[in-house]
Amino acid sequence: MKMENPQVSIIVPTYNESQNIIDILKSIRRCIPDGFSTETIVVDDNSPDGTGKIVEEYISNLKKFTENKISIIHRKAKKGLASAILNGIQSAKADTIVVMDSDFSHPPHIIPKLVSAIKQYQYDIAIASRYVKGGTVEGWSLKRKIISKGATLIARKSLGVTSNDPMSGFFAFRKNLIKGLSFDAIGYKILLELLVKTKGVKIQEIPYTFQDRKFGSSKLDSGTIIDYVESVLKLYRYGKAAEKQERRPSVRFFSKAARFFTVGASGLLVNYLVSLLFADGISNLWYIHATSIGIIASMTTNFVLNKVWTFGDRDFSPAKTLKQYGKFIAFSSLGALLQLGLVYYFVDVHGISYPISLVAAVGLAAFGNFVLNKKWTFKEKLWN
Ligand code: GDD
Ligand code: MN
Fold it and tell me: Which pTM does this prediction carry?
């Protein structure tokens, strides 16, 4: 009989799962649709409770030529969930890979849905999600819920991943997606790393109910949280480096414009706070003087932030910096004049209402300001 590659590889990491592993393997098999060839790869870290031996024994009693093979990778010691999964992936032979826990928190009847998302509907990653409509968690303490939601929020906000459940341990993906990528595989969060490193691919989320395990205990501990922080920092840096390599000029142009506008908005706040501070905080200046100080302060913070953050210019040699600062202030003043002129033009010449005119004028002036500073203050090509 000719051995062909299986169509799906299912990775099941285990550490001390002697009470769960055989039942989950059986349950996985029952959920595989007829006519599908699979391999299930258990990755065990030399579990003290003998999980590895139990699986060996189970495998040796299975029929040899079956459409649904089971194999086991023995690792010498507990080296962490993410790295166990990565080991499994490296030895997987199928083009579609499913990753899931062995403790029945991840219901196997979801597997066919994950697989068809990839094989039939051509998604690149399919995530079994607790946090989309129809999904939920059962049996978790409030503390665990808060940690999970907090970690999810951090991932979405700081790493810009779009999935609602980037912390899921239950997902499927197309294997060729990870060709050429290297993984840190720190702690628990292999999916998060995959999402950050493959941004822009097609993702589907499939709702499911996460059920807390009945046997054994979670291996998640405070060390996992430290691992999490470490991996978020690493992935954040990875994202920044990838951004620098972004070659499409339109993306670079507009992401810089967005930063420039963000800095502008922060300047309004600085302006307001500093003016108030001088008008009746640390001193009782005449309000015109206080406002002037506020304006100067905000122009200065705007300048520094735009130099460092928007345009990534770290060269603070005095002569150059002073020259840039002068230009920046000149353009800002020009921008203010432009804004005045535009408001007048919209309201008086065109009879457009003041609020709308104001928004349009501020937007146009800020954009003009951005273009001038990009080209003349920070000496970048307009469209590079
Ligand atoms: N080989 C190996 N090595 N397996 C491990 C290790 C390890 O160091 N640590 C955990 N496992 C296995 C467990 O035996 C189990 O099958 C699976 O990985 C998940 O471990 P649990 O300890 O049960 O994790 P959990 O239930 O707290 O967390 C689950 O839910 C999280 C969602 O909030 C996991 O699926 C996480 O990946 C997921 O983020
Ligand atoms: Mn679990």
Answer: 0.69
